[in-house]
């Protein structure tokens, strides 16, 4: 079965409604479950001992961030960010044209399913060499299909990143590969790696079988491997739903209610339904849904469920709760949240329960981060164009070196604290008690991943994170949180950062002394590997002292500075304790030798 999963959303840094795609985009080949299991096993093994298995010189410090199994994919055609500036209307046309070509090719010849031979591992892409990939041999049917898709893209004026494909139309230009994860090391070290070492002992024992093709964003949907749930992108006429699962429900009201319940339990289908309904009821074709159009939508959905139209006052209350960007109108991104809320409220009425058209959803906890997002921080840093005093630290590296500034890192694991997940951050579906919201944390990375699971309502992962004993283990588990809503995390991440940092430094006096001794300087997590929690620049870079040139939001540095101010306010005049005294106190508490 063929289809394309379409992801079009607004970039948050633009003034909505911008109608621009903000994902990297690529076509990917769906692989069989057995191959995915093999690749997942190898990725986890690389995570455990990356230096040895990648063939780095002895003593080289190198990390490896593995892809989780649900995100593994074989790259078929990579667009990079070259679709970023394409208006959403034109992007849909490109999607539809690609889908038509894929479907035509599969109708004239069976979808290429002959096994793909495994050819080994290598570092990719040329020049960067920061990704570990499993390489496969392309088959003639896949090459033929790819050339046809390329022709469509060329006709539509789609461009490609030259760094990934030196000659995208030349022979041998395409290297079918599955990215297993990203190397964390210097470019010089990466250039010396042989990418052989111990990986060969974990070679894939079976050929890969392609099952289908899908168009993905930079973050593949968590359920993308469920190919039966993939929806074709159709150009249905206004007033009609042609996509599977979206047709008007025939039969009894009970059957309609069952359909609605199934819709809410299947995230990809619900997202596709929301997109279809938005296009159906956006009469002005302006990318905004007016209040009057939402009234018609409410009546339409109520009719499907065998109900009277929702009460206007309650409908308007729900409508207003989701309007953020343009007063009185919903953008497509906002509608993606409003739609399931409306269906859920109508379904509650159908079952005779309380009408909840605006369900409780996680929200930022009270505090400095309540109204902040990384985009707001980006704007603040951009205004600081002159040189500043900046306390820079490089996360886990400071911890390994025994630096006093290591306690600023989320990976610092020398002093524990009792963390309580704020009730505001807990999704309704999490279903945990007040006691279960309190967890002993030996490092703040664990507290952050607890919040991530709580916000998304992932109960199973929440308890796995609660049992994590190492920072990298907690981080790995955090990547498995599902279902994932990047917009929701974007809205709450600043609140999470402040909450975690405050509880940690409030309870560990030695750490708070080191934080307070940073004076009035800006604080920056200096690593180019993290553009959200850090500044996207490495420690020692001359641009570190000029915030307007930062390449990241520095969420952690902002939170540390806010907590520093809060602690000063709470403690008042304090007895001065040197940074070294505080560091020695930490080492003593952890029963370790003080090496600084």
| The CATH fourth-level homologous superfamily of the largest domain | Cyclic phosphodiesterase
Distance between the termini: 62 Å
CATH topology of the largest domain: Cyclic Phosphodiesterase, Chain: A
Query: What would you say the CATH architecture of the largest domain is?
Result: Alpha-Beta Complex
Residue runs with pLDDT of under 50 for 5 or more positions: 1-23, 163-171, 218-250, 353-359, 575-580, 591-596
- What fraction strand? 5-15%
How many domain units? 3
Q: Please report the first level of CATH classification, the CATH class of the largest domain.
A: Alpha Beta
Number of helices: 19
Radius of gyration: 26 Å
Number of separate strands = 13
What spatial form do the alpha-carbon principal axes imply? globular
Mean pLDDT: 73
> Can you summarize the main beta sheet?
7 strands, antiparallel
Secondary structure category: alpha+beta
Helix fraction?
Answer: 40-55%
């Amino acid at each position: 079965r063929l289809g394309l999963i379409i992801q079009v959303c607004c970039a948050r840094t633009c003034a909505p409604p911008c109608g621009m795609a903000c994902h990297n985009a690529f076509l990917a080949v769906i692989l069989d479950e057995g191959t995915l299991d093999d690749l997942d096993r190898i990725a986890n093994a690389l995570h455990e001992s990356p230096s040895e298995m990648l063939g780095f010189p002895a003593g080289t410090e190198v990390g490896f961030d593995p892809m989780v199994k649900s995100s593994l994919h074989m790259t078929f055609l990579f667009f990079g960010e070259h679709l970023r500036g394409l208006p959403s209307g034109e992007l849909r046309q490109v999607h539809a044209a690609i889908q038509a070509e894929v479907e035509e090719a599969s109708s004239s010849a069976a979808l290429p399913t002959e096994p793909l031979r495994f050819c080994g591992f290598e570092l990719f892409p040329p020049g960067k060499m920061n990704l570990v990939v499993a390489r496969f041999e392309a088959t003639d049917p896949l090459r033929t299909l790819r050339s046809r898709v390329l022709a469509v893209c060329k006709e539509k004026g789609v461009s490609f990143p030259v760094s990934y494909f030196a000659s995208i139309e030349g022979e041998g230009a395409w290297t079918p590969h599955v990215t297993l994860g990203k190397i964390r090391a210097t470019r010089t070290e990466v250039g010396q790696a042989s990418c052989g070492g111990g990986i060969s002992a974990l070679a894939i024992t079976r050929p890969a079988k392609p099952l289908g093709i899908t168009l993905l964003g930079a973050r593949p949907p968590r359920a993308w491997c469920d190919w039966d749930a993939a929806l074709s992108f159709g150009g249905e006429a206004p007033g009609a739903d042609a996509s599977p699962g979206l047709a008007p429900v025939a039969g009894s009201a009970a059957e309609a209610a069952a359909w609605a319940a199934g819709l809410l339990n299947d995230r990809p289908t619900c997202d596709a339904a929301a997109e279809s309904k938005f296009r159906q009821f956006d009469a002005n074709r302006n990318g905004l849904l007016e209040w009057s159009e939402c009234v018609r939508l409410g009546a339409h959905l109520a009719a499907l469920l065998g109900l009277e139209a929702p009460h206007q006052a309650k409908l308007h209350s729900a409508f207003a709760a989701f309007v953020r960007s343009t007063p009185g109108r919903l953008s497509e991104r906002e509608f993606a949240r409003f739609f399931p809320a409306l269906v859920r409220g109508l379904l509650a009425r159908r079952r005779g329960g309380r009408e909840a058209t605006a369900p409780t959803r996680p929200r930022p906890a009270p505090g400095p981060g309540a109204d902040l997002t990384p985009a707001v921080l980006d704007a603040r840093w951009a205004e600081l164009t002159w040189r500043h005093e900046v306390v820079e630290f490089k996360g886990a590296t400071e911890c390994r070196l025994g630096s006093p500034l290591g306690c600023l890192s989320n990976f610092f694991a020398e002093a524990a604290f009792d963390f309580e997940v704020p009730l505001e951050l807990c999704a309704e579906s999490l279903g945990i008690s007040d006691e279960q919201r309190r967890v002993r944390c030996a490092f703040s990375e664990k507290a952050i991943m607890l919040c991530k699971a709580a916000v998304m309502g992932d109960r199973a992962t929440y308890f796995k994170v609660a049992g994590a004993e190492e920072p990298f283990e907690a981080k790995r588990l955090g990547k498995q949180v599902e279902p994932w809503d990047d917009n929701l995390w974007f809205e709450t991440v600043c609140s999470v950062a402040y909450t975690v940092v405050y509880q940690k430094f409030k309870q560990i006096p030695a750490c708070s002394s080191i934080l307070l001794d940073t004076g009035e300087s800006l604080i920056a997590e200096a690593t180019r590997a993290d553009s959200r929690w850090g500044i996207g620049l490495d420690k020692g870079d001359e641009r570190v002292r000029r915030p307007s040139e930062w390449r990241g939001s520095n969420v952690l540095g902002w939170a540390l500075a806010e907590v520093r101010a809060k602690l000063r306010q709470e403690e008042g005049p304090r007895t001065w304790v040197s940074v070294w005294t505080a560091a020695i106190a930490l080492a003593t508490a952890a029963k370790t030798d003080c090496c600084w």
